[in-house]
TrEMBL record:
InterPro entries: CAT-like_dom_sf, Condensation_dom
Domain Condensation residues, every copy: 135-236
Domain of life of the source: Eukaryota
Molecular function as annotated in GO: catalytic activity
Protein name per Swiss-Prot or TrEMBL: Condensation domain-containing protein
PANTHER family with a match to the protein in the record: ENZYME, PUTATIVE (JCVI)-RELATED (PTHR45398:SF1), PTHR45398
A Pfam family hit: Condensation
Amino acid sequence: MGVVFNYLGKTTDQSTLTLHGQAPWTMRPDLVQGLPVCDESECRPQLLEVLAYQQDDTVQFDLLYCPQVMPSATITALTQELQQVLHGMLDEYAHHEETLYWAPSDFPLLDVTWDDLDAIGHELAQQGISPASVEDLYPMLPTQQGLLTATAKDPSQYTVQSAFTVQGISDPDQLQMAFRRVVAQHTILRTRFLLHWTRPGVTGLQVVLRSNDIEWHLVDDWAALSAQSEDEYMQQNYA
């Protein structure tokens, strides 16, 4: 492996960590002449190892390399380019304060820019959804687009309502807790859709929320309702 990025020490595979004295790289004669022979602290299994970690209020970068293999001038140029890229990222954050919770790289399945994230955040805010409550974003599937388009034209399309009897549960709170756990485990049950959000190659978004409260209605005495009252209740609450 030529370059290893070990951010916050998360690289644990021993094959990618620094192993002194086992560098597979060939020394350059023009560099060996002006420098002492590599000792064990300089020989590295990677051509360049970049270590990044947080220190106080800053992010510290350590670049480890063998000076007899890679010229120090090259490392200096790479360091300067890295600084420019990081400063550019910070400038982008400063100009997009509304979506500080997000970055385009957070959504690898969605090819978006900072401006796209601003537009998405604004549209979600109109629905009372904050960026902090969003777990993931990705494009809608063609099948989903077709179903939701048909439902938008005719709400009765692809809308299924069911009523069934559950036995053996005496505590409604336990049933409600079970439903909440199911919702927490399955992202599709916490997904909302932005049908009209379009970009080249993308029509509609799936917005996965970190949590999704269930609107829970409890009827104390269902048996006391007449058949007509049952139908009216279902129409008012589930249609």
